[in-house]
Amino acid sequence: MRQAGRYLPEYRRVRERAGGFLDLCYTPELAAEVTLQPVRRFATDAAILFSDILVVAHALGVEVGFEDGHGPRLAPVDGAKGVDALRLDGIAERFAPVYETVERVKEALSEEVALIGFAGAPWTLATYMVEGGASRDFTAVKLWAMRDPDGFQRLIDVVTQATVEYLVGQARHGAEVLQIFDSWAGALPESGFERWCVEPTRRIVAELQRACPGVPVIGFARGVGVSVRRYAEATGVDAVSIDSSVPARWAARELQPRVVVQGNLDPISLLAGGAPMQAEIAAIVEALGRGPFVFNLGHGIVPETPPENVSLLVETVRSCAGGGSGQRRS
User: Fold this and answer.
1) Collapsed DSSP state (helix, strand, coil) of residue 326
2) Of the residues 11, 45, 52, 318, which is catalytic?
3) For this structure, is 136 an active site residue?
4) Which one, out of 133, 136, 156, 278, has a CA that is 20 to 30 A from the CA of 112?
5) Exposure pattern of 157-191 as b/e (b: 16+ CB <10 Å)?
């Protein structure tokens, strides 16, 4: 996950050229370059589009900025007036730079390397839009959802519609797989999980199946524990990505008979590297490698990760799986 990033020196050089982070996301030449950098360096079996989940919020008219050391800052969407101000009309044109990036990457990749597009799930995107950035307790967004569920539903509906448009466009411009990141699904209480996590994702998957038949969808509901089984069953995704807290053997028993499993090395294990990392990789492949499986991390790469650790990861996965670079196993 998040293959391009601050851990690669070549990425940092391009990032400096781009200026602002959103400028990098919206400059197809540069966004394509940083998408391709990990593939060139590590010969991975897939590339994941370089962009950001907040591109959708920005396209809806939300003011979005990124501050070094502080993460994203957004003008909060507050109540009905905030929802009314969101702009769905003409949104496809505002996504056009991302679609051009997809086309450039697709053209540059060999046929053996898959291209994964992605978007944030409606709940996770809504948390940023309501809280005005990252949050530890999600107080504002959860209060709105609890006190005024019908009003909050309007926000979820708008974000869902925009996300469908965004993902369909990525598929039509060359993405072969689509992933939906619900990074803050674990913040939901059980009473809200079905309505705010499962149902919007189910709607997105159904629309993608109609508009882009044959394009697989990966769902990632981070932090939901054993509820990932319900998520897999109810949303219709083709694969579930599991975070590092989900036991691999449990996933083999409860998930793999239903869907492909993607995961789930702890990013800190990758940061540590060496023999301990290799042992964890071997255990994951042993548990999940007999079923439909895509090796990945349980969340994004830590910026301080040495690139040589990533090289060792790829070599170890291929050694454990007994496959070559063209078999799409890592």
Assistant:
1) helix
2) 52
3) no
4) 278
5) ebbbbbbbbbbbbbbebbbbbbbbbbbbbbbbeee
Instruction: Confirm if 212 and 246 have CB atoms less than 8 A apart.
Output: no
DSSP conformational letter for 259 = S
For residue 301, what pLDDT band results from cuts at 50, 70 and 90?
Answer: very high
Residue 159 and residue 91 in contact, taking contact as beta carbons nearer than 8 Å? no
Rounded distance, CA 261 to CA 284, Å?
11
**Confidence (pTM):** 0.94
Residues 58/61/63/64 CA torsion (nearest 10 deg): 0
Residues 6+ positions from 177 with CB-CB distance below 8 Å: 46, 114, 115, 116, 117, 215, 216, 217, 218
| Pairing label, strands 46-48, 71-74 | unpaired
Half-sphere exposure of 177 (CA within 13 A, CB side): 20
Q: How many other C-beta atoms can be found within 10 angstroms of the C-beta atom of residue 39?
A: 21
For residue 126, is pLDDT > 80? Answer: yes
Which residue among 6, 154, 195, 230 is the active-site one?
Answer: 6
Q: Is 236 exposed, middle or buried (0-12, 13-18, 19+ CB in 10 A)?
A: middle
Q: Which domains does the chain have, with CATH numbers?
A: 9-241 (3.20.20.210)
Determine whether 52 is an active site residue.
Answer: yes
Tell me whether residue 102 is exposed, middle or buried, using C-beta atoms within 10 angstroms of its C-beta: 0 to 12, 13 to 18, 19 or more.
buried
Q: What residues pair up with 295 in beta bridges, in sequence order?
A: 263
Residue 275 CA, distance from chain mean position? 28
Catalytic site includes residue 2: yes
* Residue of 7, 11, 15, 182 marked active site: 15
Which of these is catalytic: 7, 11, 128, 166? 128
pLDDT tens profile 145-182: 999 999 999 999 999 999 999 999 999 999 999 999 99
Does position 19 have pLDDT exceeding 90, yes or no? no
